[in-house]
Fold:
Amino acid sequence: MMKQISVFAENKKGAINDVTKLLAQQNINLRALLTNDSSEFAIVRMIVSDSERAFEVLKQKYLCHMDSVLAVRVPNMVGSLNKLLEDVKSSNTNIDYLYTTFGWDDPNPIMMLHVEDEEELELCLKSKGYDLI
Structure:
């Protein structure tokens, strides 16, 4: 399982830039980023190179939360996400949300999955041969 940081930022011009600037100043690399917005606030979810240090830096300015996600590498070919979702469905696990990233050390996509029962899904996916990071 991988640590994910969620930052609650005001939904205004430059807000995401303010978050990424803090990370850049600390030499923390962004590996994945997802933003969801509402009229007043945005949730910026991220995977970074140093989650503990990033969390310490960000919580000084923002309301933050750190939890875990499953990072699953899939082949970069048609139908890979569909196959993963079929296998998740067969495990009777509900996905709260997912997002994709590329290029950490391999050209294949990495699916970031947030689910309630990570351990159960992790066992299921490993048994089906998935590469979990």
